Amino acid sequence: MTATRHIAHLDMDAFYASVELLRYPELRGQPVVIGGGRNATPETLADGTRSFKRLRDYAGRGVVTTSTYEARALGVFSAMGMMKAAQLAPDAILLPTDFDSYRHYSRLFKEAVATFTTQIENRGIDEIYIDLTDLPGDPAETAARIKQAVRDATALSCSISVAPNKLLAKIGSELDKPDGLTILTPADIPLRIWPLPVRKVNGIGPKANEKLAAIGIETVGDLARADPEILQARFGRTYSAWLLEVAQGFDDRPVVVSSEPKSMSRETTFERDLHVRHDRAELSAAFTDLCTRVADDLRRKGYEGRTVGIKLRYNDFSTVTRDLTVPFPTADATEIRRAATECLKRVPLDRRLRLLGVRVTALLPVGSYVAEPQAVQGELPFAAD
User: At how many degrees (to 10) do helices 139-154 and 99-114 cross?
Assistant: First the structure.
């Protein structure tokens, strides 16, 4: 008989916003939206107090990165357009994003969890899976100690769910936010999982959600009771079988302790469409910054890559990408910039730019291919007519 697994999913609570509240504690309890540019940086006044921008003052096409729970209560959520958010919560405080700080606190909380076990699957900057199966003691008590360790290391709260598998643990970590500790067993599925909307299941996206709603399936319980033949006719054999399994809470995926990244990238969406000639200085600075940040990410994580690529989105929302394989793997900002510049020369620069991105793929651990990168100078093509 297979032993019961104890899989935890840890999700930091409103992570980016919570990091900002450490910096600006006077904003606690207020609706705060993260996602503004540099012009949203608070101003320190002569008396030492700070003046904050309001969401109603925002002008541009940016999107909300995250928001505090108070802002969410007003309907403002991540990935929402900032102008729409301003209509819903005009008096909310607007702050710029600071990904360096978020990565710093991400490392802190993951290092705190690693003092308990190395059986950790990294799922992003603010969430991880933890296999508690082989740890001594009660899993719920262990999860409580992990929560306290994270708070001690970061002064931030997290929510943890412990369940027999990753599927249930992921769902469970959302049930009692913020600062939640949720324990789920198979017996809890009818009571706590079946009443949830099907979109709460990781792997059921917006399109599948719409197709399920069209046949009267809105909750996980509806899905559990669905006719297999109807599901197969709508979704095919493989996906319909998966839907029926997850509705019953089945999931045998292991916690993947180590996974090699396939690429590292950075991109920025401009506050306004930039002209390749008139806004050359701003484009060039953004381009160099992206290359530098990708290089920093590679070095920090111990990788270098053979293929450098760029991504451009024009003002008509069309997108192009180009890639260049370099002779030797690199994590050098100058070399990445040189290769990315060569990619830029292969795309039309006759329209205004909405987004610019740089990526490095074909990654290798540093030292697995030893070579000195050759510096090559090149003029940025942002002066094209």
Answer: 140
Sign of CA dihedral 197, 198, 204, 208: negative
Count of alpha carbons within 13 angstroms of residue 318, beta-carbon side: 8
pLDDT in tens, 191-210: 999 999 999 998 898 899 99
Q: What's at 380, amino acid-wise? A: L
Q: Which domains does the chain have, with CATH numbers?
A: 7-13+101-184 (3.30.70.270), 15-97 (3.40.1170.60), 190-247 (1.10.150.20), 263-365 (3.30.1490.100)
Q: Structure pTM?
A: 0.70
Catalytic residue among 20, 70, 127, 335: 127
In this predicted model, what pLDDT tens digit does every residue of 102-160 receive, in sequence order? Answer: 989 999 999 999 999 999 998 888 999 999 999 999 999 999 999 999 999 999 999 99
141 is catalytic: no
Q: Is the peptide bond before 195 cis (omega within 30 degrees of 0)?
A: no
- Spatial distance between the Cα atoms of 212 and 208, rounded to a whole number of angstroms: 6
Q: pLDDT digit string (tens) for 47-61?
A: 988 999 999 988 887
